[in-house]
Design goal:
TIM Barrel; 43% helix; disordered N terminus; alpha/beta; binds zinc ion
């Protein structure tokens, strides 16, 4: 499924017209809506308890070309397409807002969602076929890893968070559940003790850049700098925890990002199950998403920034285990022989 490619066709254009004109800024790109959008100084926003309007972030180029560039972007079997579709249709000005977004997706009936998803998917397939093909020589991304052993990986981006992450650590420890945290350098800088606590408790730490830019828009040097700064902070905070994986911000990547990340020793990790936790989805919705979507080799995307993410995590662990799944870190999953390529 590649249905969020169509966002530019159905959602972004009206949104661009309204939002871009009103605010005098370019609009968001599709892949950027795949996760929260910390601002240049993310700490003031990520950790602010005060809800406030969140201006559109910094993208500057049209959505479609960037989307076509994403030949191996995450293939969520969950709901980002209709959510994005809704946001575009509704003219919401909070597409970028992790904590402040007010998605309307949950107001739709399941039937509506299914219809919308299907039509978007149809169009996206046509868009995809018109796009350029992915280089076969560049390192590829990993969005799932089928081993035949029903392994599943919980992943959390953008932390550490001063209150949510410690609670999540306690929860995961109490359930003896491994997980992978893609840390943001600026957050590690602000909360090094929590980063240390993650590593000390055996959780995998990954690289999610220093300041959460869209890496595809940076020079090679700037990409390296973002990843290196994050890595240095993680290494310093954790006392040298290995960093084997990186997750590109917004899921946005191209040949340059993949090549540089690979040169720096990282495997590039996306996801195949997206909880959309940053869209203020309810715990019940996110639990349903995970339980209906997780399959052998799934990599589940969440953000350790929300109480609902904590609740969702608490709710799915036992149930997934009851269904025969084993939790592993991403790197543990990748150590297993893969029996099939990434689901596309
Ligand atoms: Zn992120």
């Amino acid at each position: 499924m590649t249905s969020h490619r169509s966002i530019s066709l159905f959602g972004i254009i009206p949104f661009l017209l309204i939002h871009g004109l009103l605010l005098g800024q370019p609009t968001v790109q599709a892949e950027q809506t795949a996760e929260p959008q910390p601002k240049r100084n993310p700490l003031s926003r990520i950790f602010s308890k005060k809800a406030r309007p969140s201006p559109t972030p910094t993208p500057t180029s049209p959505a479609a070309p960037i989307e076509l560039e994403q030949a191996s972007k995450p293939q969520s079997r969950t709901s980002p397409p209709q959510s994005l579709y809704n946001l575009g249709r509704s003219g919401s000005s909070t597409v970028s807002a992790g904590e402040n977004a007010a998605p309307t997706a949950h107001r739709r009936t399941q039937q509506q969602r299914t219809r919308a998803t299907k039509s978007i998917a149809d169009v996206s397939d046509r868009v995809k076929s018109a796009g350029k093909s992915e280089s076969t020589t560049a390192p590829q991304t990993i969005s799932s890893w089928l081993t035949g052993r029903k392994l599943v990986a919980l992943t959390y981006d953008d932390g550490p968070h001063p209150t949510i992450t410690p609670k999540l650590i306690e929860l995961l420890k109490s359930k003896n559940t491994p997980a992978t945290f893609f840390l943001l350098g600026q957050s590690v800088k602000a909360y090094p003790a929590i980063a240390h606590q993650l590593a000390e408790n055996g959780f995998e730490v990954g690289n999610h850049s220093f300041s959460h830019p869209q890496l595809t828009k940076l020079s090679d040097e700037a990409i390296r700098r973002e990843l290196a700064q994050c890595a240095e902070l993680i290494t310093s905070a954790t006392g040298g925890a290995p960093i084997r994986v990186m997750r590109p911000t917004y899921g946005a990547h191209n040949e340059r990002v993949r090549r540089i990340a690979n040169e720096m020793g990282y495997k590039i990790i996306l996801w195949d199950v997206d909880t959309n936790d940053w869209r203020k989805r309810t715990t019940d919705q996110m639990v349903a998403t995970i339980l209906s979507s997780a399959t052998d080799g799934s990599i589940i995307l969440m953000h350790d920034r929300y109480a609902t993410t904590l609740e969702t995590t608490a709710a799915v662990i036992d149930e997934l285990r009851a269904r025969g799944f084993t939790f592993v870190t991403v790197s543990e999953m990748l150590e297993q022989p893969r029996v099939a390529p990434n689901r596309k």
